[in-house]
Write a structure and sequence with these properties.
Blueprint: H1 5-28, H2 35-70
Helix pairs in contact: 1-2
């Protein structure tokens, strides 16, 4: 199964928006003093948001760098 760059960006955006919704719900909801939820957000959701935001921001540059380093046949979405 191949995945196109557009589909990959759409999935990254969806994950990023889902994480932002979780943080927003935590900040504005009544669950701010739940230790388990706090730990999940601190050690899972927030690092995931950081990674997905960085990939959305620098993804094209990273893909160009990887493509030039490893060749066009290894790029995401390439047809075998």
């Amino acid at each position: 199964m191949t995945i196109t760059n557009r589909r990959l960006r759409d999935l990254q955006r969806l994950a990023h928006l889902g994480g932002a919704a979780a943080v927003g719900t935590y900040l504005y909801g009544p669950w701010t003093d739940t230790p388990l939820l706090t730990a999940i957000l601190q050690w899972g959701v927030f690092p995931g948001l950081t990674l997905s935001g960085t990939l959305l921001w620098q993804g094209p540059r990273l893909r160009r760098s990887l493509r030039s380093r490893f060749g066009a046949e290894d790029r995401v979405g390439a047809v075998a």
